[in-house]
Amino acid sequence: MNELTHLPPSSQMHTFSVKAVKRQGFFNLKASLIMVFCHCGRDAIIQTSWTSKNLGRRFYTCPVQGSNCGFIGWYDQERCQRCVDIIPGLLRGKNKLEVDVQKLGHSNMLLEGKLRESEANSRKLKMYLVISWVCFAIYVMLS
Fold this sequence. Notes:
Elements: E1 13-21, E2 28-36, E3 45-48, E4 58-61, E5 71-74, H1 81-142
Antiparallel strand pairs: 1-2, 3-4, 4-5
């Protein structure tokens, strides 16, 4: 598969080369960078698809939220069937774990509140016990 088949039409792209010099040598690394432009002429941004058909796949779109430019082209190549089958399950598992963490956090807050309440009651009972022993001691001494 040609690696450029997933890119937008050439009228929306501009390519250029960049030279990079590695510190431990004098060789040049030439890389081709691809600039993708939106239908309105702005630099396109990369977002992630969350649809069940293209879950996790990245695509070019307009940087202006709510614009009518919409989808420009795919950044990623099409996913293999195994990825298409596995990724939704992983996402469902991740979402379930996030819900469980939220529930546990809520339960933890409730338990911490009950613990503080129990500790306050314990302090009261200890104070009542000390007062009762002092009163008993005074009663014994006066009798």
